[in-house]
């Protein structure tokens, strides 16, 4: 007659714990770098500075995952592009479409996160026309951002 073999709860927990620990160590010690450069950047984000001349309108597409550059061509399809602007010159920045149904706005902020000189637009879900701000970049205008969506933030640097 065949004997029925059972596994105790304690033994089952030991085996499960050992298997989980082995999988964890194996996952952490993979030798490959998956072809990446290790910085977590997919190469299409705003870490590169894009020089924009004052006569070029800056147009962004609103997406709760990040502003996506539309114009000029240098920032097309770049998420949260870093805008390199000339101090003392006047620039026009705006957005005219959204990839979602959420409300967005555009603000120019300083390093402390405060809106600079009332440079902000109203919250709008799907604008009928381009919503824009005109401003002169300075030491205090360091960020453009959508207030309700923290992922929608890009840097402004002076040339």
UniProtKB/TrEMBL annotation:
<dbReference type="InterPro" id="IPR008972">
    <property type="entry name" value="Cupredoxin"/>
</dbReference>
<protein>
    <submittedName>
        <fullName>Copper binding protein, plastocyanin/azurin family</fullName>
    </submittedName>
</protein>
<feature type="region of interest" description="Disordered">
    <location>
        <begin position="27"/>
        <end position="50"/>
    </location>
</feature>
<feature type="compositionally biased region" description="Gly residues">
    <location>
        <begin position="28"/>
        <end position="38"/>
    </location>
</feature>
<dbReference type="GO" id="GO:0005507">
    <property type="term" value="F:copper ion binding"/>
</dbReference>
<dbReference type="GO" id="GO:0009055">
    <property type="term" value="F:electron transfer activity"/>
</dbReference>
<keyword id="KW-0186">Copper</keyword>
<keyword id="KW-0479">Metal-binding</keyword>
<dbReference type="Pfam" id="PF00127">
    <property type="entry name" value="Copper-bind"/>
</dbReference>
<feature type="domain" description="Blue (type 1) copper">
    <location>
        <begin position="87"/>
        <end position="158"/>
    </location>
</feature>
<feature type="compositionally biased region" description="Acidic residues">
    <location>
        <begin position="39"/>
        <end position="50"/>
    </location>
</feature>
<dbReference type="InterPro" id="IPR000923">
    <property type="entry name" value="BlueCu_1"/>
</dbReference>
């Amino acid at each position: 007659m065949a004997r029925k073999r059972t596994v105790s709860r304690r033994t089952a927990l030991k085996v499960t714990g050992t298997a989980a620990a082995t999988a964890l160590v194996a996952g952490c010690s993979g030798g490959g770098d998956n072809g990446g450069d290790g910085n977590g950047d997919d190469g299409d984000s705003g870490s590169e500075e894009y020089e924009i001349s004052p006569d070029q309108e800056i147009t962004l597409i609103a997406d709760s995952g990040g502003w996506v550059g539309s114009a000029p061509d240098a920032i097309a399809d770049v998420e949260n592009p870093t805008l390199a602007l000339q101090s003392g010159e006047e620039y026009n920045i705006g957005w005219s479409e959204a990839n979602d149904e959420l409300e967005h706005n555009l603000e120019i902020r300083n390093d402390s996160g405060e809106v600079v000189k009332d440079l902000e637009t109203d919250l709008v879900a799907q604008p009928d026309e381009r919503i824009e701000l005109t401003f002169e970049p300075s030491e205090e205008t360091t960020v453009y951002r959508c207030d309700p969506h923290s992922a929608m933030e890009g840097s402004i640097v002076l040339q």
